[in-house]
Amino acid sequence: MKLALKAAAAGLLLSVASPALADIKIGATVSETGPASSLGDPEAKTLRMLVEEINAAGGVLGEKIELIAYDDAGDPNKARTFATRLIEDDEVVAIIGGSTTGTTMSIMQVVADAEIPFISLAGAIEIVDPVQPWTFKTPHTDRMACAKIFENMKAGGITRIGMISGSDGFGASMHKQCLQIIGDYGIEVLIDETYGPNDADMTPQLTNIRGKEGVQAILNAGFGQGPAIVTRNYGQLGIKTPLYQSHGVASKAFIELAGPASNGVKLPGTAILIADLLGQDDPQYGVVTAYKEAYEEKTGSPASTFGGYAHDALRLMVEAISRAGKAEPQAIRDAIEQTKGYVGVTGVVNMSPTDHLGLDLTAFRMLEIKDGGWAPAQ
Fold first, then answer.
1. What is d(CA 288, CA 191) in angstroms, rounded to the nearest whole number?
2. Angle at 238 between CA 235 and CA 239, to 5 degrees
3. What proportions of the chain, in percent to the nearest 5, are helix, strand and coil?
4. Does residue 358 sit in helix, strand or coil?
5. Minimal CB count within 10 Å: which of 57, 134, 196, 260?
6. CA–CA separation, 50 vs 54, rounded Å?
């Protein structure tokens, strides 16, 4: 299948499949470049790869898929512009994207006004709570990440922590969600620090946390480069207090950016990160192994949590089109909402009119970085 690269006025337009054969248009706007590229790059590569696979296998409903995707570089204004272009100019029947919470939130009103189904690839709970009729998402929520982390802390006897959070959309949302449920686990925040998305040194904040008497663990709510800097500074300061990160950094790129200081870091992640350790009786074994092998053969790069989010989004959408029997926005929306028992890279999905995520905590795996790789956390 021929991959056509066209220059767009405000981003890179990627079109998969020959226009003469591409009958079902699905749009995407992801952060393939920019500060969130560790999320958006594997998402874009996954979408292109899957469309090629699906079309090579005959498409859906006997028609080919045309993927029309833009690189919003993590800019909410660009994401909104591209979402509008996808709907008004490209005439897509559905949209995947929003690598970050900020870009997702900027897309949501556009798809609501146009009544186009949208599957987000971002983490904040506000994306699906309260439920918006036309918006769904594949990543676990930040609130679920907090719960998984606090379960592990409680099991380890940790009752007093320090927090450091990014002030971006995801970091602020996760910080809020953690504070709302932390009391349920008998854990107290003794000191609470923040950093900006462009900060290059979090040593002052970490020094304050280190100096706070009674802190038994540190939790960093954030994604992108910020948590890697926090981890490097944590190592440079020689802090021995256990460090927890969010699922927003669950990729090999984080380990590479953070360096040796990342060893020992714990975080909630998905099965893709420990694919080689899954038993064949694990319900996700087949889909996780197939995706990992295909992605790594195609790209030469390690498969990541974020690519898995895109995998599930496109597969959910294609499955919904197949079940609906037609590629019309309302029919696709309704079919996505009726999804039951879909086994994906991220987990087993059961959607409903009151749940546009469809995952529970069992889909999260508590992981620890050991020797530059992933292992189940103890």
1. 39
2. 90
3. 45, 20, 35
4. coil
5. 57
6. 6
Euclidean distance between CA atoms 338 and 356, whole angstroms: 10
Choices 2.60.40.1730, 2.40.50.140, 3.30.2350.10, 3.40.50.2300: CATH for 3-140+286-363: 3.40.50.2300
Helix axes 169-181, 101-114, angle to 10 degrees: 100
Long-range interactions of 360-363: CB distance < 8 A, separation 24+: 360/144, 361/144, 361/147, 361/148, 361/151, 363/140, 363/270, 363/271
Q: Which residues pair with 6 in a beta bridge?
A: 13
Whole-number Å distance between alpha carbons of 50 and 349: 19
| Identity of residue 62 | G
β pairing state of 243-245 and 217-221: parallel
Q: Is the alpha carbon torsion for 135, 138, 140, 142 positive or negative?
A: negative
| Residues in Cβ contact with 80 at an 8 Å cutoff, skipping those fewer than 6 apart | 106, 107, 110
Question: Can you give the pTM of this predicted structure?
Answer: 0.86
Burial per residue of 331-369, b for 16 or more beta-carbon CB atoms within 10 angstroms, e otherwise: bbbebbbebeebbbbbbbbebeeebbbbbeeebbbbbbb
Tokens 């995801």, residue?
A: 170
User: Are 147 and 182 in contact, with CB atoms under 8 Å apart?
Assistant: no
Q: Please choose, from the candidates 312, 307, 254, the residue with its C-alpha nearest in 3D space to the C-alpha of residue 284.
A: 312
pLDDT digits (tens, 9 = 90+) for 297-335: 999 999 999 999 999 999 999 999 999 999 999 999 999
Domain segments of the chain: what residues?
3-140+286-363, 142-269
In CATH terms, is domain 142-269 a member of 3.20.20.140? no
Confidence of residue 14 (pLDDT cuts 50, 70, 90): very low
Separation in Å, CA 246 to CA 106, 128, 170, 178: 23, 19, 10, 11
Task: Give residue-wise pLDDT tens across range 237-264.
Answer: 999 999 999 998 988 889 999 999 999 9
The DSSP-derived string for 242-296 is: -EEE-GGG-SHHHHHHHGGGGTT-EEEE-GGGGGGG--TTSTTHHHHHHHHHHHH
Question: Residue 126 and residue 145: Cα distance in Å, rounded?
Answer: 14
